[in-house]
Amino acid sequence: MRYTAELVYTLSGDPIHNGYVEVAPDGAILSVGQAEGPVDEGIICPGFVNAHCHVELSYMKGLFKKGTGMAGFIDQINALRDTSSMEDKVAALKEAMDSMWDSGVQAMADISNCSDSFEVKASHPMYTRTFLEVFGANPGECSAVMEGVLRLQKEAEAFGLDAAPTPHSCYTMSPQLVTASSAEGLKSGFLSFHSEESDEEEEMMRYGRGPMWDNRVRNGIPTPPVTGTSSLEYFLQRVTEAVPAPVPGNVLLVHECCLTPEGAARAREVLEHPYIAVCPLSNLFIHNMLPPIPVMRESGIPICIGTDSLSSNDTLSMIDEINCLRKAFDLPLQEVLTWACLNGARFLGLESRLGTLEPGKRPGLVRLSSYPASSVIPSEVEGSHFKSTRLC
Predict the structure, then answer these.
(1) What is the CB neighbour count within 10 angstroms for residue 363?
(2) How many whole angstroms separate alpha carbon 42 and alpha carbon 192?
(3) pLDDT at residue 80 above 90?
């Protein structure tokens, strides 16, 4: 099958004007080049990689109040978790995965706290790496928590899923559990860690105060150590207790809304292969802030894009995240597509088959149409907003 477009973003070189992509029945790219004669409107790019999602929380869509801050959001998720039947949960997460697939998501880095999503992910055409996230603020719970997550890992692997433990965040885990789960997760070559998601988190870690600190004290939950440093620095200290620097493997720092140049430099020093996943619509949903994209770009740490969950987002649409970032930061389309496609593939170790339109790869094919609908010409591309549709 041959597909044409006014612009083809291969992400392995410059965009091709009036280009084509020829695809085999099995999805393999046969050839890419400049078309002769008329072409279809819009843009073609590789399939997306959703670098951070909690698809098992899809049953929570529409239940959360916006703008509550992290403390308020945590209260809501604790109150609403497990309030639906298993049948409804599975139906919601299947609908969410099908919707992502139809809009062009080829692969996903997904967070799981239980086995609810395993069967659906195992039978779905979308590739998923499952990060089995652990919690436990009481140091005495560390061994039991790790025993539980290793049982969950065996269950995921029985479904044929790539899965391993990963730490959640600095404030939901004892120092011992951050280190133990990092050590176990790094055996797989991958970690994903919620880091510097909000000012509230930073205030709690640096100074032992603020809404998140008060929330934990009020509910009788152990508080994290007051380090006087950022939550990112705390994580880097704990992970090097597990594996000496430079820490090998692909380590994804999720959110990083409070990232500083100094923190980014420290991450590059400690981690061999750091990545950052930005989820701008989730950040706006919870606490009305955006990640410091200029700091991230300057750092040189590869940026990926995620959607987070339907508890903190209205959709799981990668193109909505792309539109948000480009509107807020005036970013070139090629750069943001690289984040959404190639960098996510690199984080997951799938760049040999995903992320670019090159012969032999099977990255999926997505058409971007301007929205509201109009013909996209090169001079207008950088100011356009898009919707996305899977071609193959």
Answers:
(1) 31
(2) 34
(3) no
DSSP 130-176: EEEEE-B-SGGGHHHHHHHHHHHHHHHHHTT-EEEEEE--TTSB-HH
CA dihedral 350, 356, 361, 365 (to 10 degrees): 110
Strands (E), the chain: 2-8, 16-23, 29-34, 43-46, 48-53, 105-112, 127-134, 162-167, 190-195, 247-255, 271-278, 303-305, 365-370, 386-390
Q: Is residue 192 part of a domain?
A: yes
What is the model's pTM? 0.96
Better-predicted residue by pLDDT, 343 or 82: 343
Task: Please state, in angstroms and rounded to a whole number, the distance separating the CA atoms of residues 210 and 74.
Answer: 14
Domain-located, residue 227? yes
On whether the CB atoms of residues 362 and 26 are closer than 8 A, the answer is yes
> What CATH number is given to the structural domain containing 67?
3.20.20.140
- Report the C-alpha gap between 208 and 227 in whole angstroms: 9
- Tell me if 385 is assigned to some domain: no
334 touches 45 (CB < 8 A): no
pLDDT tens-digit map of 309-354: 999 999 999 999 999 999 999 999 999 999 999 999 999 999 999 9
Structural domain count, the chain: 1
* Token duo for residue 298: 């300057």
Domain range enclosing 83? 48-316
Question: Which pLDDT does position 240 carry in this prediction?
Answer: 97
Indicate whether 351 belongs to any domain. no
